[in-house]
Amino acid sequence: MRLETIAIHAANHIDESSRAVIQPIVLSTTFERAEDGTFPGGHIYSRASNPNRTLLENVLAKLEGGADAAAFSSGNAAGMSVFQSLAPGTHIIAPDDMYHGLRNQLKLLFAGILTFDFIDINDSDVLESYIKPETGLIWIETPSNPLLKITDIKKVVAIAKQHDIKVACDNTFATPICQQPLALGADLVMHSSTKYFGGHSDLMGGALITAEKSDWWEKIRQVQTMGGAIPSPMDCYMLARSIKTLPYRIRGHVHNAQLLAEHLEKHSKVEAVMYPGLPSHPQHQIAKGQMSAFGGMLSFTLKGGEAEARRVINALQLFTQATSLGGVESLIEHRASVEGPDTKTPFNLLRVSVGLEHIDDLVADLEQALN
Ligand SMILES: *Cc1c(COP(=O)(O)O)cnc(C)c1O
Question: 290: which of 152, 153, 201, 282 is 20 to 30 A away, CA to CA?
């Protein structure tokens, strides 16, 4: 089945007793045993599994083309479970512009347990030079946040396979509608479902999807069940509901982002636009090779420096100045001030989560703010 069909059907299940067409929300924390002590409903206790979470995990696995998925209470909880699943002493290679929340997790919570290097992962020679016998994981994020850099997934996977190293890909910006890392050879996909999966800026969630049910995956499941960083039945229901429209929402985000990027690129006050769908993007050809669409996120820099960036952001009326992304409403953010003192993000950069408003209204608002 195609993605649009999977999105609508893979998390649904007609309830036997009520014949409700939409999956009921099951709040029960515990499930009755049969006389012989087994669990005929397939669930024991909701920290381990819950009907709403199982259905959500089913649609997530199918959308990414994986063997199984695990849903978490946030993207950071999903990422943390990956790090917790690794043996102490494991070395991780991650991009130098890794999502700052996960980079800080490694630096502040896993120092002394795991070792890690943050490098320019796109340079094969640099990547090869950092691989050690203890390297167990290469973490990638493409397109990256907030510079929209593209990592050549197949190229990284080829290097990793030579050394028997696992590859995990943060696919939050692309979503499986635009890019499917497992099909390109990655072992694991991570999502902040707070973003496009949720799509309405009203819930937090995370997900991991595995290419195969390996011992490593069992360990990740153990971290999830024992650690308990699980989403509530209500959040699982809301996510399953939002995912039904994901393929069509992404089409709208992609359409608006492409037009907005092209418009900004022509503007005299704009220094540069970072969007993988622009032919001027340095890795446009790689993006074309591994993405079926270029996503709804873009960043741009202003000629007038940080002061001009702050002026523009405050002059906008339709774009809300707020962090996060992937909702139906357009958001804009001065990213360097969010990321803290060690940021590599230029101070004249604004990051935009392009929403589903009419493109003419978005362009008009940017025009009035820039001029
Ligand atoms: C938001 C985000 C995360 C973290 O997810 P939370 O749901 O906020 O915990 C990780 N990676 C990327 C690329 C993100 O945008």
Answer: 201
Tokens read off for 131: 């691989």
- The tokens describing 54, both together, are 């199982």
Strand partners for 188 = 168, 210
Q: Are residues 253 and 171 in the same domain?
A: no
CA angle 10, 293, 179 (to 5 degrees): 55
CATH number at residue 239: 3.40.640.10
Residue to probe by mutation, ligand 1, list 194, 202, 299, most atoms within 8 Å of CB? 194
Q: Burial of 329 by CB count in 10 Å (0-12 exposed, 13-18 middle, 19+ buried)?
A: middle
Asked if residue 215 and residue 93 are part of one domain, the reply reads: yes
Q: What is the pLDDT of residues 309-357, one digit of tens each?
A: 999 999 999 999 999 999 999 999 999 988 877 788 999 999 999 999 9
Q: Tell which one of 73, 74, 76, 169 to mutate to probe ligand 1, the residue whose CB is within 8 A of the most ligand atoms.
A: 76
Give the number of the atom of ligand 1 that is nearest the alpha carbon of residue 324.
Answer: 1
Residue ranges lining ligand 1, Cβ < 6 Å = 74-76, 99, 101-102, 141, 145, 170, 172-173, 192, 194-195, 204, 206
| Cβ-contact 131, 93 below 8 angstroms | yes
Cα–Cα dist 368/371, whole Å: 5
Q: What contacts 247, CB < 8 A, 6 or more positions away?
A: 3, 4, 7, 177
Q: Is the domain of 142 the same as that of 253?
A: no
The Cα 160–Cα 82 span in angstroms is 17
In this structure, are 65 and 121 located in the same domain? yes
The answer on 43 and 29 residing in a single domain is yes
**233, 52 Cβ separation under 8 angstroms:** yes
Positions annotated as catalytic residues are 47, 99, 170, 195
pLDDT tens, position by position, 22-69? 999 999 999 999 999 999 999 999 999 999 999 999 999 999 999 999
- Candidates 83, 61, 368, 14; CA nearest to 189 is 61
The range of the structural domain enclosing residue 257 comes to 247-370
